[in-house]
Amino acid sequence: MSFGQGGPQWGPGGTGGPGGGPTPDWAALAEASEARTRRRKWLLIGGGAFATIGIAAAVAITVVSANSDDSSASNKPASELPATADIPGASTDPEPSFKETTPPPPPDPKDFIASAKKDKAPLTPEGLFPGKTYTAGESVYKKGATDSTEKCSSRTQSALGAVLARNDCTRLIRASYLKDGIAVTVGVAVFDTSADAAKVKAQADKGLVQSLPGKGIADFCRTGVCRGTYNAYGRYAYFTTTGYTSGKNVTEKDTKAYAVGDDLARFAFQRINQRGEAQASAAANAPQQ
């Protein structure tokens, strides 16, 4: 038998309950309870899922919102980016500038031999004509006697002596060299300025430096014809007197005598120039004051 909707159902052959009344259908009751429990679980799970979706949406919104501030600058092409001065933290101070410096030119050697005020290196026959020989190419010249005097005109022929005295020669240094019977005396006259030496060069078209024998070199150019040269460089005028120790005359076609004289004239120039180079080099390497 059955009762109205929702009432307990009694199955056939059921045993009686307390007081002898009808026995409840425990299986049906258990199923009903189980169904209610399942509905509550789904409600709880469903509610949790909705809550999770809500949180995720909130996080997504927050992330997008945070990124939106930066995307306006980082996603633009370089031409649209703000100038350096507009970027936070960028320095607006001008870049440091440095003046271009150029090292001074090296000293000119000729400046040091142009006047006595700057030409301060010791001046001696051995310093001007060092060693025992002079080599020019394949030619080797043996050095003989040397000397030095402040009385310049006393070691020259009179015509040249007058020129040296007129232009205030302060010293005359001589050295002689020998090769194959041809001897040369080189004379270097010293003046206070290059202007004085230039005047001597312009006026010294007559007269010779006296020959200097000794130390293996016999007398020469005491008689006969000898060849003479003259020139000037810086505050120095330099001369050569070339002749044969045999007394033979030097002629204009005597290429050997001319070559020997030219070699020694070139040597005198080189030694004067080296004097200037040595002083210029010392000045360049000196500590700056």
How would you explain this protein's 3D organization?
The protein has 6 helices and 6 strands. It has helices at residues 26-74, 109-112, 125-128, 158-166, 194-203, 255-285, and strands spanning 133-136, 139-149, 171-179, 182-190, 227-233, 236-244. It is elongated, with a radius of gyration of 60 Å. The protein starts with 25 loop residues before the first helix and ends with a helix.
Mean pLDDT: 79
Largest sheet: 6 strands, antiparallel
Strand-pairing-aware structural class: alpha+beta
Strand share of the residues? 15-25%
Tell me, briefly, the overall form: elongated
What strand line-up does the widest sheet have?
Answer: 1-2-3-4-6-5
The residue ranges in which pLDDT falls below 50 over 5 or more consecutive positions are 1-21, 49-74
The run of helices and strands is: HHHEEHEEHEEH
Task: State the share of residues found in helices, binned by percent.
Answer: 25-40%
- Provide a count of the helices: 6
Radius of gyration: 60 Å
Total beta strands: 6
State the end-to-end distance: 133 Å
